[in-house]
Write a structure and sequence with these properties.
Chain lengths: 477, 477
């Protein structure tokens, strides 16, 4: 037992130090490694396989709505970045600059894309002439660079992977519709696949994307009560179109500006999975996103027939992503590893089980043991994975609801902010002074104005003037 | 007829000007667009969809051999790039340098990866301690940057997409085996999926990868008789391991250096598909790689029942990638577009066909028309796609063989090099002086020393000393 406990003991408990627990899990589950490049990470096979599943599932959902994939350059000439005023102000302080190509200095320096609005605009300006060229519903999968000062694996790093959708439409209505459609797509994906419940809403003007008319967001609550912005969808109106001169001749023969959107989701969702579902034994992966869904662990595998049976069972489960751990480690060590890596289900199978024509299914999240006759294994595994997926979402939702508070007075607001990590729902007048003051006085930021509004009180929690919006507030990653 | 001819007339004929024909096809088939970023391209939906199919098929084949995907940073600190002497000499002249992050100059400048050997070595140096950690069979899909002076769409651009596999092994034998295995995987992929026949062989020392002990290559012949290096696989021996100190404790308790390989294939394969299969009507895509395999074009689509029947036929072909062109363009224009885009098969379907319960299948490559009863469409389409795939490979092979010449004397060699575009097979003594001289005197480079050696003469084509290798020579992209 000493040996198998060791792996687990190497991770800090989340109650003791959540940040350290997170870093430990990221390392011990072999998701990531640090590199010689400051602020940049290696995404290792176990981490990248999760991203591949995220990509696969998102890409499928995108294409069902008519999205086409493209690839644009990773470099943006400085003059292009500067075309939209708010946008350059938002991003210029945190871009990496290429100044030399080979041995020679460049005539104009290039930044490594922090996001590609300006490149898509430059592209669309040439591509779009007529209403017949619209809409453009393009997306790219790529990496982007933002020169962050402090970094954390998956959550904030100088380079990260994402997809960025960029669309152009003939009308404002169509652009708004696409913006909301993609936000809902992200929300459904989070809930159905990652088992992460999210609040859907709109960002305040202060928190919106540099250059956007409106930014919509989905906000998730991590186990420690901090919020994580999990996906955003921006409506640019015709602001970029005017800055870049993207015009088309409409059916009525009038020259008009296009309306644009962009929307993105990143590798930080792997961080969200860890912080929503993980426990003190490591990662817990929702079955639908798990690269390996079932790990078969033979007991006394050197005894005749055990390994054969393990592979026979694997063959029975061909509809799932199944592995057999036939390494020469002890079963206990293998259990710890499977738990650390968050594999949803393990099947224990030893000589006595084989004699009784049964196996033991163990759920990663509840650790429930289910002795199952081998002929019924396939059906039982299907059932367990389905139940686990559902219950993980429910558990996360309960946790979030239990950590969502309502404040009616400023004192109450401050007290909650200080003592109870989680979301605070409170009314707001809509002015940035109050938003700034709440950050200053209570240390929280506005997460979003949720689509599902409630009227808690009639007045702003800070200034007492008539309230315009109910807002989710919180501390955020 | 005037209108439908127009689209085709916009491309230069390949006999007139092959380079211009290529550029025209790339633009008119909507594969690529130029950008404000000099030397960088936009890969448009029709081009990117081909790359997605290449990725999908290669990735599946990789994983069958045990490859795992990872992601490493796009930046390489200058000191890291310099660790392996030959490598830095090969790449330093053509890298892009990042010198500023945000508003501040960097302490050490970073290059944007031109290839990631140095990063993988840095990573492996920390990851590998014991023989138990071996082998590492990692790959990444990413973009790389090489600051080329002259660029051409897909064939040579400052940024391109590729995969780069990087492996580490306990023994030299295992590394060599993996190097050859991946070269054969590339060759099979080219022949089976892209219908491009390739010569498998080894590069001369002059042409090998910077830092490699041996570079293996597959070489394809384009329609104009120029060669295209289509995939390479490198065996590094323990050169990089020694430069980076990648050591492991072997089973015999001895500290040993690992043996490494790397192998890559890029978006230039899209250029190869164009230049091997294209014709004067545009692109011709092999069915297995075509994003759309069948385009159904309704004739007189406004007549009752025509569009319904077109969609019914699409439903019958659910095993294939099928679209219906129901735009309001003329059928002739649609034919031209389908041909320009290289969609392997079109199905023409009009009121008279429907009355006769038939449709007309037209093959893109041969333009053969096959009148087919509708109930037999599915089987016939399957047959036509299969035949077309096979015949495209055969046609390309015949073309290559017809443009492969054998030279026994230097005069003969020079005459072929001057007059007959294609491969020249000739014997070589193995010294770089003769290789350099043949480039100087005949304008060709060594493409590879093929695995299938023949003895044409006993002596080097240039110096007359005893020959060591039969070499394929040619002009290359």
């Amino acid at each position: 037992m000493a040996k198998e406990k060791k792996l687990v003991q190497e991770i800090t408990s989340m109650e003791e130090d959540f940040a350290q627990w997170y870093t430990d899990v990221v390392k011990k589950a072999e998701l990531i490694d640090y590199t010689s490049v400051k602020g940049c990470m290696v995404i290792k096979p176990a981490g990248y396989a999760i991203w591949e599943n995220i990509q696969h599932e998102l890409d499928r959902r995108f294409k069902e709505t008519g999205v086409e994939n493209v690839y644009l350059p990773m470099f943006i000439p400085e003059s292009l970045l500067q075309k939209e005023k708010d946008h350059v102000e938002g991003f210029a302080p945190e871009v990496a600059w290429v100044t030399h190509g080979g041995m020679e200095p460049l005539q104009e320096r290039l930044c490594v894309r922090p996001t590609s609005e300006t490149l898509f605009c430059d592209f669309y300006q040439k591509e779009i002439q007529s209403y017949r060229d619209l809409p453009k519903i393009y997306n790219q999968w790529c990496s982007v660079v933002r020169w962050e000062k402090t970094t954390r694996p998956f959550l904030r790093s100088r380079e990260f992977l994402w997809q960025e959708g960029h669309t152009a439409h003939a009308t404002a209505e169509e652009a708004e519709q696409r913006t909301i459609q993609m936000l809902n797509l992200y929300a459904d994906f989070c809930e159905e696949v990652l088992a992460i419940p999210v609040i859907r809403g709109r960002k305040t003007d202060k928190e919106k994307f540099a250059g956007a008319e409106a930014t919509y967001t989905i906000e998730a609550l991590m186990h420690d009560g901090k919020a994580l912005q999990s996906g955003t969808s921006h409506n640019f109106g015709d602001g970029f179109a005017k800055a870049f001169g993207i015009q088309f001749t409409d059916k009525d023969n009038q020259l008009k500006y296009v309306h644009q959107t962009s929307w993105g989701m990143t590798t930080r969702m792997i961080g969200a999975i860890i912080m929503v579902h993980g426990d003190n034994s490591g990662l817990v992966l929702p079955p639908r996103i798990a690269p390996t869904q079932v790990m078969i662990i033979p007991i006394q595998q050197k005894k005749e027939g055990v390994l054969e049976k393990a592979y026979e069972v694997k063959g029975m489960l061909s509809g799932y992503r199944v592995k057999v751990d036939d390494t020469d480690k002890s079963p206990g060590w293998k259990f710890s590893e499977q738990e650390m890596r968050g594999i949803p289900v393990r099947i224990e199978l030893g000589p006595k089980d084989i004699e009784a024509n049964q196996a033991v299914i163990v759920r990663r999240d509840t650790r429930e043991k289910i002795v199952t006759p081998i002929p019924e294994l396939e059906q039982k595994v299907a059932e367990v994975l389905e139940t686990m997926q559902k219950e993980m979402l429910e558990r996360a939702r309960k946790h979030r609801d239990a950590h969502t508070y309502t404040a009616k007075t400023l004192d109450e607001f401050k007290k909650i902010a200080e003592e109870k990590p989680g979301f605070i729902k409170a009314m707001w007048c809509g002015c940035q002074e109050c938003e700034d003051a709440l950050k200053e006085e209570a240390g929280v930021t506005s997460r979003c104005m949720p689509f599902e509004q409630e009227e808690i009180t009639g007045t702003c929690i800070h200034c007492g003037k008539p309230a315009k919006h109910m807002v989710y507030w919180g501390k955020a990653y």
